[in-house]
Amino acid sequence: xxxxxxxxxxxxxxxxxxxxxxxxxxxxxxxxxxxxxxxxxxxxxxxxxxxxxxxxxxxxxxxxxxxxxxxxxxxxxxxxxxxxxxxxxxxxxxxxxxxxxxxxxxxxxxxxxxxxxxxxxxxxxxxxxxxxxxxxxxxxxxxxxxxxxxxxxxxxxxxxxxxxxxxxxxxxxxxxxxxxxxxxxxxxxxxxxxxxxxxxxxxxxxxxxxxxxxxxxxxxxxxxxxxxxxxxxxxxxxxxxxxxxxxxxxxxxxxxxxxxxxxxxxxxxxxxxxxxxxxxxxxxxxxxxxxxxxxxxxxxxxxxxxxxxxxxxxxxxxxxxxxxxxxxxxxxxxxxxxxxxxxxxxxxxxxxxxxxxxxxxxxxxxxxxxxxxxxxxxxxxxxxxxxxxxxxxxxxxxxxxxxxxxxxxxxxxxxxxxxxxxxxxxxxxxxxxxxxxxxxxxxxxxxxxxxxxxxxxxxxxxxxxxxxx
Length: 469
Hints:
- Helix content is 41%, strand content 10%.
- By secondary structure, the protein is an alpha/beta fold.
- The strands form 4 sheets. The chain has a 6-stranded mixed β-sheet with strand order 7-10-9-11-8-12, sandwiched between helices. Strands 1-2 form a two-stranded antiparallel sheet.
- A hairpin with a 4-residue loop joins strand 9 (368-370) and strand 10 (375-378).
- The N and C termini lie far apart (50 Å).
- Residues 1-23 have low confidence and may be disordered.
């Protein structure tokens, strides 16, 4: 892998020989506990002073950062316990090893993997801003430079990289320690981009309102720690990580970001605008369109490796795309909607085990599964024939909602995720025909699926057909 992994690769890591128990897990709850400890050791400091002090502690100071956030020399020398200092240095510093381990990434309650560096830089930019409408450095510090570097790197190494969004998986969901990338690498990993998006959202939020009385730990708790009830996202506050994509779409002017990336390519990364104009246009168009598609159009898709899927039994049969049909299901069992990533991932593993070991199928039957936590879970996925609708598995996708919807409906957010976000994503990606027909599972076989109430609901959806050929 290329040694230039994002904006923050060159910082020195703390020696592994002096690790303590505080460094074992990599989740946002542990980060918040560390921040609380720092705040307790340094009473009276504002959120901005704490954020700047953390940056000084871990040694972030590049020309780009100095240009927008100033010299770190005026930041407070924070008092903190050695174990906390060590932990913060490890989880904030971003680096990808030659073996694909991505450091400086933490797992959040909603199942996202967040690089802390761009998130904290965006937050600091917002806290320093004197106007809510224009925050100097917000996009360069969070997204622009990483996207530009990745697009250019991919243009020069097309066979061995992807332009953006390499995802990974944790060694454990409950006790995450090691996050390993899967697939071809990119300089703008999924965690870096997610952290950058959070940096834009939180930076914009703190610039709009007076946050002098709010601590960093409380802001992180409210954003990353909100627990959804049965109503899912419908009754939740707007500023939570589960609504990241909704908020991002509202905030971002994509044309402006695209222009900034083009400027970064020509002004900072050595791209010859005259001789490489055609290449620049191709790099920009392809890379940026994918970024907008993955992070603003499609729902957040939790991959098989992220939810801990067992291996497919045998060899999968590939679908002939685009497929003409979309079938809607409910799981019935589990009967309760899941509202956390941990529970939804557990439900996915349970269903896969039942489908493989009891039903004797090669894998979990559904193509995708919708949780009430804001995530869509990959089952057989885009390319493999499923086992969801007998007689039509090779002709369509089967999307199921987790829960029993015989007498109730999934939350509106979950419905909208499938009805609008998934279908647009599937059509635009070339997986689902633009003239697809939508059906309930019961229209293909003798079953009550997807439940009376949900079946009545989907009859009002676009592309619903009352007759199945």
